[in-house]
Automatic annotation (TrEMBL):
Domain Fibronectin type III-like: 688-757
Keyword Transport attached: no
Organism from which the protein derives: Streptomyces rubrogriseus
Keywords on record: Hydrolase
Family, per entry: Belongs to the glycosyl hydrolase 3 family.
Keyword Hydrolase annotated: yes
GO molecular function, one term: hydrolase activity
Designated name of the protein: Glycoside hydrolase family 3 C-terminal domain-containing protein
Amino acid sequence: MTADVAVETTPEIPLWNDPNHPVATRVDALVAAMTLEEKIAQLYGVWVGASDQGGEVAPHQHDMEEAVDLDALVPAGLGQLTRPFGTVPVDPALGALSLMRTQARITSAGRFGIPAVAHEECLAGFAAWGATAYPVPLSWGATFDPDAVRRMAAAIGRDMRSVGIHQGLAPVLDVVRDARWGRVEETIGEDPYLVGTIGTAYVQGLESAGIVATLKHFVGYSASRAGRNLAPSSVGTRERADVLLPPFEMAVREGGSRSVMSAYTDIDGVPAAADEALLTGLLRDTWGFEGTVVADYFGVAFLKTLHGITADWADAAGAALKAGLDVELPTVKTFGTPLVDAVTDGRVPEALIDRALRRVLGQKAELGLLDPDWSPVPPALDGVDLSDPEALRGRIDLDRPENRELAREIAEKAVVLLTNDGTLPLARPRRIALIGPNAAEATAVLGCYSFPRHVGVQHPEVPVGLDLPTLYDTLTAEFPDADITLARGTGVDDGEVSGIGEAVDAARAADVVVAVLGDRAGLFGRGTSGEGCDAESLTLPGAQQRLLDALLDSGTPVVTVLLAGRPYALGRATAESAAIVQSFFPGEEGTAALAGVLSGRTSPTGRLPVSVPGSAGAQPTTYLGARLAQASEVSNIDPTPAFGFGHGLTYTTFAWSDLVAHTKEAPTDGAFSLELTVRNTGERHGTEVVQLYLHDPVASVVQPVQRLIGYTRVPLAPGEARRVRVEVPADLASFTGRDGRRIVEPGDLELRFAASSTEPRLTATVALTGPERRVDHTRRLHAVFAQETVEGAVEGA
């Protein structure tokens, strides 16, 4: 089908290539000139792997797909290239050359010379061989520091852009609802406001580098029953609106994200990839999103194979397009010949193709891919002699010192000190027993979407490509005068107990035990944390709890250190450990960060983004429970956490005082103004995280007992005090009412200033007055904090 439409051109350049015209005008001209096959070719990707010799990419035959004939596809054009760097290990310079040559091939083969959008994973850094492995998103949440996350994301984006990548498949904005879910490590936490603010900062950083950020998974994926991956989700409209959607709404409104990925989930029988009310009605018509909606991998085909709502591939493609999905990923399945045939025979209107195509081409125009001076040469290879590919090997460094410094900053800020009897920081111990399956395991700091754990494990013959010191290495450097004895004790999940006796002997001969436990990241059952690695309970994997209990019985103080992707119940160790240090897969600088906290070189400032359970079987539960979700006399299961959301200690003490509510009453369209003083009463520099929770005693629908509505980090020198001021808009008290609309109700509220969800420090009772008020997506989303130093450090401290 060829369109016989006259298109305005100049003698030098076609209209669609002319950046002097508006994007919409250029796109309309291009759409009018394309055949149906050329149109549809822009709406799918092909999964490829770059060549380590610098040759063109090779199609990747995933175990769910047939092989792709790239030669047959490219003459019609190609919408996306899937993970050229993240499929097999490849030297970055040669990978960039491979991608460059493939883009040149694509643009020369098609009539319009349109490059493909190249996308990659970037959940814990650019998922490429040799690229910096940053902490996982759960550690981002533990920092409570959007600015640091924004700077990290910008660095990730610059690296991706330098080698020719355009789109990053991050961040994950799913709110944790059940910690047994394997993908908890990929999330930012269990609170929608924390997820929204940290996730939006990540989006801003990535987009500032010119990379299209992709919000995922839209929406409900994390609410699966029993924490099972890809299991049905039981989510009511109010939970979806008030818990699951707000992070996406914030990232669309404030982050400037240009892409959204639909979830695998169905909610109440409607799969997200075919949900027109979600992808068009809410996302576009209400929130005003103008970017592209891409499918989670194989998500369109799943409408037929997993959801059973379509009879064939063409119906699946039509249902997704009608809903508002634009791009099939990771490769062509339903959007290829089946969709061409369905449009030709009238089953799918061509108008749906054109609607999606305009969004895709508009984004390519914004990326400069339609400009006449576009070049396939990425910035990192600009001006470089490309005639000898082997001479390029090692030329591009994706793990520069400034990257590692950022990785260390995030890792240090994310270390959470859960409990401490004074044993930490360690006072130059003479004998340390370093025990546990993660004590000398280099990859114990990496999440499942880091390149070494995601791809590298399939290529054991290839070096990891990163310097990954173990905790044994960094503790040896941190305590050069100490005698450090190493004992594994047991594996992460092998259940082996024969080494526990040796570990206990080492413990008895030491001054202190550092027990390093936790997870091994993997995919689909090949790990204890990660996609498809769900947990039956929150007991430590394998025989680790048995090892920990034996160490506690040794009589030597035990510092429990967790390198994990989710929180675990620790049994008696919760009360009996000398200290507990929690780190969520902290990346390549993680063991150095941990060693610094253990020695006292750095003071811990992290706060829990997820509650640590008091018992292994009290799931699903989060701190966002209503009154019926709390411990009661009518159930023998106690969901009370061992350590609540937001909890974290440091090596100093703080006093909170002098709370003043300047506004005790405000109309439902007004705001409250409050201030308090926070003082460092200890002898070390430290950072307090002031958290603000809202408690609504009486509401027209059931509410959580409390929910986070704001936070700020307060760094203080010894003796220093700061006056912390905050303006709290009435909009933050809004919730979804009985009629499904968001409202602000009049009535009394409690504003709780707290060190965590379980540690309120100061509370102000305030009141909203006037009529009930409806609010929408234009409502205010943040409390506004300001700080002023009121006293300097104590002299000589």
